[in-house]
Amino acid sequence: MTATIIDGKAFAAEVRGRVGEHVARLKEENGITPGLAVVLVGEDPASEVYVRSKGRQTIESGMNSYEHKLPADTSEADLLALIDRLNADPAVNGILVQLPLPGHLNEDLVINAIDPAKDVDGFHISNVGLLATGQKAMVPCTPLGCLMLLREHHGSLSGLNAVVIGRSNIVGKPMAQLLLRDSCTVTVAHSRTRDIEAVVRGADIVVAAVGRAEMVTGDWIKPGATVIDVGINRLPPAEEGGKGRLVGDVEFESAAEVAGAITPVPGGVGPMTIACLLANTLTATCRAHGLAEPEGLTA
Ligand SMILES: NC(=O)C1=CN([C@@H]2O[C@H](COP(=O)(O)OP(=O)(O)OC[C@H]3O[C@@H](n4cnc5c(N)ncnc54)[C@H](OP(=O)(O)O)[C@@H]3O)[C@@H](O)[C@H]2O)C=CC1
Ligand SMILES: Nc1nc(=O)c2c([nH]1)NC[C@@H]1CN(c3ccc(C(=O)N[C@@H](CCC(=O)O)C(=O)O)cc3)C=[N+]21
Ligand SMILES: [Mg+2]
User: Which residue in 60, 63, 64, 70 has its CB near the most CB atoms, within 10 A?
Assistant: First the structure.
């Protein structure tokens, strides 16, 4: 068997197109331009790449992009003061603070200082609670992107066995919540899970969010299962000065021989994450102005 490749890059472009159309209508009919503020503390080169492509795609979709780059030694008080200003700024509809933060900054404190209505990452405790209780929330972008790909591929997910590998607050846990809401039978595996291969072999849907290059191999996969690979891992460069290949948490070659469908890395979940960030910024803007929300762009 050879798996269908789920083209996240193409689907993300379609989502961005729909966001762009809605943004154009908001401008024409309501005179509103959504704005997204991205805050980056320190100089992590990988983060800077994401922040750049987020900024570019924000502008391409017709929204305003505000980038705040702060030095690595920024104090918590200064960062909280910036967040207060962004919370109060009516031109800013979405706020994203790039994680991880430098070690001297308390991530929970900083995230929970964001106005939940502008929390386009969906990491604020209010949004976590709203999602967990089935109320209208801002939904974290990466799990939302995975859900969109799964719905697109399967239609209904009802009754399917889903195994999420990883229990982080930004991917694993919200992913499990969304799958549960779509009536999957959900198992969350992690570093203490016993006989993890056997657990994963029971899954119709596998979402791998571990951060370990190519950990999940084809022999873990039930024939015909759908595999969503969230991992972004840079392998050590083969030659001096080279950049090193980007791979997921799944060994693509062996998994694709067994799976029914699989997302590649790059070109799978990553582009969907950014598309969902734009979708969330649009949703936050509509909610802020009491306008109808975009259809098919929320969970
Ligand atoms: N494509 C995208 O848009 C995004 C990609 N990512 C990528 O997704 C991956 C996961 O990110 P994130 O959730 O933030 O990572 P974290 O490091 O926060 O969490 C990793 C999870 O994997 C679990 N884990 C670690 N080792 C094993 C193991 N050997 N077996 C089973 N489980 C294990 C950990 O378990 P425990 O809790 O027990 O320690 C933890 O729950 C990374 O590669 C990251 O780069 C992240 C965000 C967005
Ligand atoms: N507050 C916060 N929110 C985040 O959503 C967040 C974060 N912090 N910190 C870092 C992680 C990581 N992340 C990615 C987004 C897009 C790609 C992406 O577009 N990847 C491309 C490839 C990019 C490349 O070539 O390097 C792809 O997979 O095709 C990857 C990773 C969002 N994150
Ligand atoms: Mg920290």
Answer: 63
Which conformational region is residue 31 in: left (phi greater than 0), alpha (psi within -120 to 50 degrees), or beta?
left
- Is the pTM of the predicted complex or chain greater than 0.90? yes
Mutate to test the pocket of ligand 1, among 123, 175, 196, 232 (most ligand atoms within 8 A of CB): 232
ipTM confidence: 0.98
Is 232 assigned a ligand-binding role in the annotation?
yes
Q: How far apart are CA 132 and CA 135, in angstroms?
A: 8
- In contact, 244 and 234? CB cutoff 8 Å: yes
Output DSSP code: residue 37.
E
Catalytic residue selected from 118, 119, 121, 229: 121
- Tens of pLDDT, residue by residue over 141-172, are 999 999 999 999 999 999 999 999 999 999 99
Which residues lie closer than 8 Å to 10 by C-beta, 6 or more apart?
Answer: none
Task: State the average pLDDT over residues 184-199.
Answer: 98
Beta strands in the chain (DSSP E): 4-5, 35-41, 64-70, 94-97, 161-165, 185-189, 205-208, 226-229, 233-234, 246-247, 261-262
Q: Verify whether residue 84 is a known catalytic residue.
A: no
Helix (H, G, I), strand (E, B) or coil at 16: helix
Domains of the chain by range and CATH?
Answer: 31-115 (3.40.50.10860), 141-271 (3.40.50.720)
Per-residue pLDDT for 179 more than 70? yes
**Angstrom distance (rounded) from CA 126 to CA 38:** 20
